[in-house]
Amino acid sequence: MSSFQDKSFSNMEDLYPVPFPDDVPIAKLETISLNKLLSNNEVEAQRLFNVCKGSGFFYLDMMDHEIGRKMWEDACYACRSGQAVLPITPMTTKKAYKARTGVKVLDRGYQTGAVNDDGQPRDSEMFMVPQTEFFSNEPLGFELPPWLAPHEERFKNAMSSGNIVANVILSILEGKLELPPGALTNIHKLTDSSGDFIRVLRYPGTDLGAEIDPLRFPPHRDAVSIAILFTWLGGLQITDEEAAFAVPESSWRWVKPVPGTAVVNLGDAMEVFTNKLLKSGLHRVIKAPGLQRAHDKYSVLIVARPEDSTPMRSFSSPVIPEGTEEQKSAPIYSSIEWGHNKIKALQDFIDKLQSARAGKTENLERSWTAPKSGSGIDVLEGCPVGLVTHYRTKAEH
Length: 397
Ligand SMILES: O=C(O)CCC(=O)C(=O)O
Ligand SMILES: [Fe+2]
What we know:
Jelly Rolls; Plant_2OG-oxidoreductases
């Protein structure tokens, strides 16, 4: 086992090497209490529903309930496992941990963008550990590669805590949406085949004096139901709510990491299920602010996605708006097809963005063979390649 396993969880100083600067615009996010959600507090449930109809982003206080404290500890452990393995494992070894054939959803494998001459990623790298393979009732014969296998137990713990927390949120939302009990929770079970995963991301630090392109992870929305993110240094940004239609550079706000909390956001699946009553927030990652930029930034993301065969269409209920005739006649994808199309479109967009930044065609080596078909879904429709700007059409809102 790695030496970091003994590091204390009461002493987190190593995860916060430099304070977050106080002179950058910060997103004002509500803090929701996990303990209050778990004890059926009606005021907190209503606050959650309001936030989900607004920005779709909130801090979840993990420290006021045992389940949250355990999940926070597992997330810190996952972060330290990333710190222990990502900078020192050779790129060829990391790249040998492949995604499934075809794009499907990004629930396993290693990904990076451009790689520098020294073998380190230029912007970011990440690995995913799949939930289904570890929790399915049928044995699926999956093994993590040797550089990740020693951390398997903690990744599993974090995923099972993540599934509990996601279902607490989903059960409150299903009540507020006036859906039958189980409408959302029954399609987000830990044992389902659904493409859920835990992801550990690393954004390498940069020389403070260096001229660098700040973009680390382009603007996107998550192709999931619920995303639970733990991060210790700055870099994540969301947009000002008033900038819902056009997103100028000035509308981006920093999400300040708060110890003991997760940053939770709804993903696109919740917009589909509710005809956009609930919101999936646009976000991006740029270089960490101020002196934090010299340090590697790590994030740990745990997601819940709908079970693979779920039809991706809106539920009907007295509180969910009716779809337009056009929406009603659009093809209905299953969750796995829908996720596949979204990821394919996002990856194509990232490839184009990388090419624009490099000033040449740069076909990133992917750990899968992507099918040729057009996806029919453009995740970042209208987003001009090379600009960190996203336009949402009014009709989409
Ligand atoms: O690392 C972060 O702060 C965000 C990562 C993210 O948005 C993602 O993996 O989808
Ligand atoms: Fe994301």
